[in-house]
Amino acid sequence: MSPISRLIAAALVPALTVTPIAARAQTAAAPANDALKAEAAAGVEAQAKLVQEMVDSVFSFAEPGFQEFQTMEYLTGILAKNGFTITKGVAGIPTAWTATWGSGGPLIALGSDVDGLLGLSQMPGSPTLKPIVEGAPGHGEGHNSGMPLVIAAAIAAKQVMQKHKIPGRLMLWPGVAEELLATKAYYVREGLFKDVDACIFTHVSSDFGTGWGNMGNNALVSAEYSFKGKTAHSAGQPWEGRSALDAVELMDIAWNMRREHLPVTQRSHYVITEGGGQPNIVPDKATVWYYFRDQDFASVRKMYETGTEISKAAAMGTGTTVEHRLLGYAAPNFGNKPLAEAAWANIKAVGMPSWSADDQAFAKAVQTSNGRTPKPLSTEVLPLSTPDTRERSLGGGSDDIGDIMWTVPTITVRFPSNIPSLIGHNVLSAIAMATPIAHKGAVSGAKAVSMTVIDLMTSPQLVSEAKTFFTDVQLKDQKYDPVVTAADKPAIHLNQAVMERMRPALKPYYYDPKKHKSYLDQLGVSYPGAVGGQ
């Protein structure tokens, strides 16, 4: 029996009595908290069916950034039924919301991302690639699992707090448009975390762990450059035209030459989102969308400034004009040490999910069917990730949780709802995200988060130590320095046209938990497909 199983068993003994926490002082991870944390974990286990329904439902909505309307209504409806106060449209973002509950004590924020990715529609439970709706968005990162985890954890923690009269407040919030790195800086700017004492963020993974210190994620600036020229007949009077597309191409060429001389930690990439209508008309409008990434505030700001200088030079060289617009921002990630240590102790107590033979067979079928290196579902939690145990980062991905990390003490808990050896931002990463693997991983993650919430609510020392680390260590050499200004606005127009076109085709595939025990059942998918067929 695992440590958490023993704790849950003890917590469920009717004769067990627990002194109200408000009546006595607590220290971080004090043994006296074990029974309360076991109750919270048991409260999560009791919600396993709800977790499955939430994970499957959000997967079926398949909504990309800024278009998470169905997801918002569904999740906030569940929270409202469980006594949370809902505020929608926060920070000027229609699909953003908060759900609050409690009084007195510390204010603990819990969040996770909710958006899908364009063009990654995939039939869950199918080891081979098969879209639900051709060309539609899908959860190829697994963001459908995070808020269900957070909601189950919050409800379980709330139940324990009510039963034992523990003061404290919870604030749940969704990571809207994280794939666009486009909202959390605005949450911070608008003061959503002004009074928050600590924040626990969760992110889907194939492993289970957390860490502290500089996590190696790159800071990011997302910017759009729009050029304007003059149309003309491309063959008859080309001298009368000024090609905006030429300006975009010149900017791209110049940037590619410049980045040869940038540090190895930088990453940058772009797509041309508008380039003209037909070849025999000189394009008078063209747009290119850039992501600039590097490891710290100053470096990514400099990249953005350099890109903007190059855009102006490209406009001058082609006789066009240019305007630029900020579409998103993400600060580098930095985890809080006391919070990470407390959460990791709970992760270790919970342990990995009990994977079935079918789970392992399905994971192997997905890997071998798609040319990936076979690797079984992990059975061991990760060690605590620290600056001493991590390899030096030479650049990579970004996550705008960094903006919150530089505002209040924050950690990311990675939970095991996906399969190892897959490709991120790819249909492969959607295959398992409405299967028992996703459900079990979210339940395990919710247990660890709920237990950490109880630690924070019952240990003033832990909250104090987290704040001290934040101010004395994290902010010692760097301060939050975003490029977002008071004039910048969230890019809520993004993906609107896509969903206006795709939503009618997706609606018939929304999961109906009243009629079907799971989304796989609704879709007629046998699990595991590699063994049972489809």
Automatic annotation (TrEMBL):
Family annotation (SUPFAM superfamilies):
Bacterial exopeptidase dimerisation domain, Zn-dependent exopeptidases
- Residue ranges crossing the lipid bilayer per the database entry: none
- In this chain the Peptidase M20 dimerisation domain maps to 219-302
Q: Where is this region: Disordered?
A: 365-398
Claim: Ion transport is one of the keywords in the record: no
Keyword terms of this UniProt record:
Signal
UniProt keyword Signal present? yes
Q: Signal peptide span per the entry?
A: 1-25
The cross-references to NCBIfam families, in alphabetical order and at most eight, read: amidohydrolases (TIGR01891)
Protein name per its UniProtKB record:
Amidohydrolase
